[in-house]
Structure formats: C-alpha cells, structure tokens
Amino acid sequence: SQQGEEDPQALSIQEGENATMNCSYKTSINNLQWYRQNSGRGLVHLILIRSNEREKHSGRLRVTLDTSKKSSSLLITASRAADTASYFCATPPLEGRTSGSRLTFGEGTQLTVNP
Amino acid sequence: EPEVTQTPSHQVTQMGQEVILRCVPISNHLYFYWYRQILGQKVEFLVSFYNNEISEKSEIFDDQFSVERPDGSNFTLKIRSTKLEDSAMYFCASSQFGTGGAGYTFGSGTRLTVV
C-alpha cells in the first residue's frame, strides 16, 4: 500500500495568500512529518506531529492531524515567493525500529507562490 | 546549525562504472540513511545503517549497492556497476533517534547521471 499521498499535486497562489496541502496515509502511525524541498535541493524537516496531537504550529506553519481519517494538512499562512518549493509528508513505521526507521514519503505538492 | 554534507553535488558516470557517493552525517547522530529520488518521482528509502551494520534495506538496495562507514565521520554509498536507471538524486540522512520519533536531517543530495 502507498503511504502518504499529497493533494493537490500542484498549487499556485499569490503572495500573501494561504496555502493548504493535504496528505493521506494508509497505515497507523506514531507521527507524521512534513518536509520541504527546493528545486534540485535536499529535504528540510519542517515539523513533526505525533499521533496524539491534533494541531501544531511553528511560525507561519500550521499542521493538523486526523488519525480517524488518516490525513494531515499543512497550512502556510501569508505565503511568500520564497515558500515556492515541493512539500512532502513522511511517516516512520508504527513499530519504530531502534536500529533506524525508514521514512515513507508521499508524492509531494509543488507549491508556487507568485510575487 | 549542524548539517549533513554530501559530495559530490553532481556526478556523471558511464554505464557499468562504479561510483561512490559520500556523506558526512551530523556528528552526534547514530543512525544513517540513504534515499533516492528519480526525477519527478517520490523519495524512496534505500537503506538504514546503525552500529556499523545495515539495519534495514529496501527491495531497491540489491547486490550492486553497498554502504560503509570507513571512519568516524564518513558514510558512503557505492554502486558497483551503474545502470541507466540508477540516474537519480541520492540523499543521505541522519537521525539522533532510531525509532523515527524525531525529524531526520537530510543532505543536499548528489545528482547522479548515468550515460
């Protein structure tokens, strides 16, 4: 089964608007993580939300988690042109391995913020 | 802020040649990973490494791949006989905890092109 599917695949907004990206997953999780990737660059960890949390904030980022629907959303408020990037959700396995747990990534949402 | 360093940033190699991708994880992290991202596709897990041995590998990580921590700082991915389909971005990552309970730090990646 495919873990972590984001929608929309692409989102184009104007600077100052809010951007909302969604992620659905199939298996139970301990936490869900959001990453950002600028074009051709590495992945940057943005925020982690645990399965017992419903909402988490970090600066202009707001993440929600609905474990009953197996979905999460990432909201970027007051977007800026510099927010243009791909955004991925990722989950480690429920039974985390003490020897290192793989992350399963979604397809990603390409966000374009137009100045 | 500590970062994961990868070299080279770009590598072009002939099909059938061996390549070694290098990574310097964050110094106090104990868990190391390699992921790859074929152009336009999702980020895929290759292998995790802990206590000087592979702790998990994906079906992608076949006999042509190997990893090594030759000294106290470097973590390498070797592809013995490259194929065209090995062309991708390869990301190294490290984490302080093995259970996936915290974020992972990724390097900026090595773009491998097999011609």
Please outline what is shown here.
Chain A is mainly β and 115 residues long. Chain A has strands at residues 5-7, 10-14, 19-24, 31-37, 43-50, 55-58, 61-66, 71-76, 85-91, 104-105, 109-114. The N and C termini of chain A lie far apart (39 Å).
Give a description of the structure:
The complex is a heterodimer of chains A (115) and B (115). Chain A is an all-beta fold. Chain A has strands at residues 5-7, 10-14, 19-24, 31-37, 43-50, 55-58, 61-66, 71-76, 85-91, 104-105, 109-114. Chain A has a single domain, classed as Immunoglobulins (Immunoglobulin-like), CATH 2.60.40.10. Chain A is 0% helix and 52% strand. With 115 residues, chain B is an all-beta fold. Chain B has one domain (5-10, 17-96): Immunoglobulins (Immunoglobulin-like, Sandwich), CATH 2.60.40. In chain B, 0% of the residues lie in helices and 50% in strands. Chain B is built from no helices and eleven strands. In chain B, the strands form two sheets. In chain B, strands 2, 4, 5, 6, 9, 10 and 11 form a seven-stranded mixed beta sheet that branches. Chain B is globular and about 35 Å long. The termini of chain B are far apart. The chains are: A mainly beta (115), B mainly beta (115). Chains A and B meet through β4, β5 and β10 of A and β4, β5, β9 and β10 of B.
Provide the fold topology.
The complex is a heterodimer of chains A (115) and B (115).
Chain A: E1 5-7, E2 10-14, E3 19-24, E4 31-37, E5 43-50, E6 55-58, E7 61-66, E8 71-76, E9 85-91, E10 104-105, E11 109-114
Parallel strand pairs in A: 2-11
Antiparallel strand pairs in A: 1-3, 3-8, 4-5, 4-9, 6-7, 7-8, 9-10, 9-11
Chain B: E1 5-7, E2 10-13, E3 19-24, E4 31-37, E5 43-50, E6 53-57, E7 65-68, E8 75-79, E9 88-95, E10 105-106, E11 110-114
Parallel strand pairs in B: 2-11
Antiparallel strand pairs in B: 1-3, 3-8, 4-5, 4-9, 5-6, 7-8, 9-10, 9-11
